[in-house]
Every structure is written in structure tokens, then in C-alpha cells.
């Protein structure tokens, strides 16, 4: 789908979010009972818009996106109608297919735990939890007909489904695709890889070990040869110093090898010879002694 079309679709969907509601079973600030009637408050379009923007900026599997989604789903009070509308903004077509299947599987697992009338999900069904029951298609019907535990169950099942689907469809992290080119210095390669890791969603304590491993695995063949001479357990600073030193001396060593194997002309006799060899030069003899 064209990105501009997707953006316009997102805007239109967010305009409709004003009519999408939370049931307010577990959070008085989101809803309450008015007599025998349940009330619900709408999903804040700005919250969903923040999720969409974070996905664009940081990627769907980033920590920021996860936190924002938790803030929307954390009340355990999302109606199936809410869930579907919100997730249509989070996922593209392929992601939505994966999400729906994960959501259905999670709901089915919870229903399988029902053993008798004392269970809070007794009498429920997959259709009720996912909003496909013919009597519960509309938002109002779901708000009036679903029990509190059903709403909590489907919300939690959907949140787990979002996590699973996000992992499936997430694009490879940029740092995992960075390779050192043959003409690139090791320090330039380190700079590119480090910059990518800094902006990634990896936990800070994991970035150092990941950087070290990527430097070893994603460097070019010449650098790998150099790194093999380092003792096991060498840190990143050791790697940089060692490779930089070898890269500095490599042109000098190459020039020496070239010079050694090059032919030169003897300044005495003009005969061509390789450096390190002696020209076939004989001291001339004279019939008349030189006085």
C-alpha cells in the first residue's frame, strides 16, 4: 500500500475513534455504571496516533511502541470492537492476519481452562470474546452484553497477540545488516555499527556484547584475519587498537614487498636485477696500469 494512502487511512480511522469506547469495568476514570446501564469512555485518538508515529520512527518491536500500547491496553477494559479498530492502525494487512490468529489462539486457550459453572468464563465463547457473535457485533451490544471477566480476558489475549505479531513482522534491525566493505577502515565500520545500536531498541546492557559480536561477524575478510591473532576475551578497545595498528602498517608492508620484488637497473653496469640480489658485475681489467 502506498504510504500516503496508508497515512490517509490512518487519519480517517482515528477520526472514527471518537465513537470507540472502553467499557470501564476496572477503571472508574474510564467508565462507570449509571443505574443498570454500563457506560464507556472513548479511546483517545492521540494515544493511538502516538503509537502509529512511534512505529514509523522506531519500529513496531521497539520498547517505546510496547510502552504506548501497554498504556492503551493496560486497563484490561478493551471491547473487541475497540481492539480491532486500534489494531488496524497498528498493523498492515499481513500483520493484521497474524494478529487475529494469535488473538483467537490466546482466547481459545483461556476458554479451554473452563471446567464448570464456577469459572468466570463459563458460558462464554470464542465468538463473544472476539466480537463475532451475531448478537454482539456492535459496540453498544458488546458494552452491554460482555461480562467483566470476558472483557479482561479478550484484552489481555489481544495484548499478547500484538506482542507475538510484532515479533513476526518486525523488519530486521539495521545493526544486524551492517557489513564492513573492503575499502572501509575498521574505525569507520565501528562508528556506523555503534550509531545504529545507540538508536536501537536493545536494552543498554545488551548493546556492548552485541557490538562486539557484530564487529567479529560482520567485518570483512581482511579484518577477520587480523582479529584471529587476538587472544580470546579481548574487549572492543583491544579490537580497535589491534586492527587500527595492523591497518596502519599494512600499506608500508605492501610497499616493502613491492619494492623487494621489483627489478632495478644496476647503476654500475645497467643490468636489471631484483633488490636483494647482486648484479652480474665484474671489475674491469686494464692492459695499462692506472697510475
Automatic annotation (TrEMBL):
GO biological process entries: viral process
Residues annotated as domain Retroviral nucleocapsid Gag protein p24 C-terminal: 170-241
Signal sequence range: none
Composition bias, Basic and acidic residues: 1-12
Span list, region Disordered: 1-40
Superkingdom of the organism of origin: Eukaryota
Protein name, UniProt field: Retroviral nucleocapsid Gag protein p24 C-terminal domain-containing protein
Organism: Hirundo rustica rustica
